[in-house]
C-alpha cells in the first residue's frame, strides 16, 4: 500500500459562469504551485467543488491536473458521489489517466458505521487505485467512534484517511494503527504533523504555498518552535478570511495574484464588490500585503 507524504493543495476549479472548467487559469495555477515545491494535488474535493460538477467536468478537471503534474507528483482525485457506481466510474477514470490515488467523502444519508463500511468497501474493492476515506464529521455524522475509523482503515485497498477534523487523539490512534494520514485542517497542520500525520491537504496551500512548505520543512526537521511560528502566520491569515465565505475569499485572493478561478457555485455565494474591498483592507491592516500581490 502506498504512503503519500508532503503538501498537496486542494486545488480550486476555475470555471466560467455556466460551470465549465477553464483550463488556462487552472494550468497556470498548477504551474505556480509546482514551482513553489508542492508534492502533489488534491482534485475535485470540497475546495474544487467536485460534488457540484457534472461527471464529465470532473473527469476533465482530473485530466488537466494529471497532465500538468510532473512524473514524481502525487495526484489524489476525489471521486465521492451520491451513487457508488458513479464513484467507481470516476475511480476507474482516475486510474486510466495516471492518478496516484482516489479519495471520497461519505455518501449523503449514511447514518451509521455499517452503511459506511458497505459503501466504502464496494468502492475500495472496485477501484484500481488505493482509496483514502475522507473523514469530515461536519458533513457526515455516521462515524461515531475511533473504532469506526479504524474499521474503515482496515478495509482492503484503503490506504488511509483524508482527515479533516479537530479530534487529534483519534487521528493519532489511526496513525498508530498504520493508516496513511493526510491532514485537512490548515490552521493546525503543525500539531497534526507532530502527532504523526504524513502530510496535509488544504485550501490555503493555493494562496501561500511557500508558507505551508516552510512549516512542513520545519516539522520534518523537528524544529517545532519554528514550525509553530510558521503555523501562527498561516492561522492569522485564515482568521482574516473566516469573516467571509472562505472559498469565495480564496478565489478572490487568487484572482488578485493573477489566477482567475471564476465564481463559486451554488449553494456557495460569491463576494460582493464591497466585501472584496473589505477583505483587501483587512489583509493590508494585518500585514498581509504580499498575499494579494501579483505572482
How would you portray this structure in words?
With 295 residues, the chain is an alpha/beta fold. It has one domain (6-287): Alpha-Beta Barrel (TIM Barrel), CATH 3.20.20. Helices cover 45% and strands 12% of the residues. It contains 11 helices and 8 strands. An 8-stranded parallel β-sheet has the order 1-8-7-6-5-4-3-2. α2 links the parallel β2 (40-43) and β3 (74-78). α5 runs parallel beside α6 (168-176).
| CATH topology tier name | TIM Barrel
Tally the structural domains: 1
Q: What is the CA–CA distance across the termini?
A: 38 Å
Helical amount among residues, as a percent range?
Answer: 40-55%
Beta-strand content estimate: 5-15%
Mean pLDDT: 96
Order of helices and strands, N to C? Answer: EHEHEHEHEHEHEHEHHHH
Main sheet specs: 8 strands, parallel
Number of strands: 8
Low-confidence stretches: none
Widest sheet: strand ordering: 1-8-7-6-5-4-3-2
Amino acid at each position: 500500500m502506498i504512503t503519500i507524504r508532503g503538501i498537496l493543495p486542494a486545488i480550486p476549479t476555475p470555471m466560467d459562469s455556466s460551470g465549465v472548467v477553464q483550463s488556462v487559469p487552472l494550468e497556470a495555477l498548477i504551474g505556480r504551485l509546482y514551482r513553489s515545491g508542492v508534492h502533489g494535488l488534491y482534485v475535485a474535493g470540497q475546495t474544487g467543488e467536485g460534488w457540484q460538477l457534472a461527471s464529465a467536468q470532473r473527469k476533465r478537471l482530473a485530466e488537466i491536473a494529471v497532465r500538468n503534474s510532473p512524473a514524481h507528483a502525487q495526484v489524489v482525485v476525489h471521486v465521492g458521489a451520491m451513487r457508488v457506481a458513479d464513484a467507481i466510474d470516476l475511480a476507474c477514470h482516475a486510474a486510466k489517466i495516471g492518478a496516484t490515488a482516489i479519495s471520497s467523502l461519505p455518501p449523503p444519508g449514511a447514518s451509521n458505521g455499517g452503511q459506511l463500511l458497505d459503501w466504502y468497501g464496494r468502492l475500495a474493492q472496485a477501484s484500481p487505485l488505493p482509496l483514502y476515506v475522507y473523514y469530515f464529521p461536519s458533513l457526515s455524522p455516521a462515524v461515531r467512534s475511533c473504532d469506526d475509523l479504524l474499521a474503515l482503515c482496515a478495509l482492503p485497498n484503503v490506504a488511509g484517511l483524508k482527515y479533516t477534523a479537530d479530534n487529534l487523539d483519534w487521528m493519532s490512534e489511526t496513525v498508530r494503527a498504520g493508516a496513511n494520514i493526510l491532514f485537512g485542517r490548515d490552521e493546525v497542520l503543525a500539531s497534526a504533523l507532530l502527532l504523526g500525520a504524513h502530510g496535509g491537504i488544504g485550501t490555503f496551500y493555493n494562496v501561500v504555498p511557500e508558507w505551508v512548505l516552510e512549516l512542513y520543512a520545519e516539522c520534518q526537521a523537528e524544529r517545532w518552535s519554528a514550525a509553530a511560528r510558521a503555523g501562527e502566520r498561516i492561522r492569522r491569515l485564515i482568521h482574516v478570511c473566516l469573516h467571509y465565505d472562505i472559498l469565495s475569499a480564496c478565489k478572490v485572493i487568487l484572482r488578485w495574484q493573477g489566477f482567475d478561478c471564476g465564481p463559486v457555485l451554488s449553494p456557495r455565494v460569491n463576494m460582493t464588490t464591497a466585501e472584496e474591498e473589505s477583505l483587501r483592507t483587512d489583509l493590508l491592516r494585518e500585514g498581509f500585503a504580499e498575499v494579494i500581490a501579483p505572482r
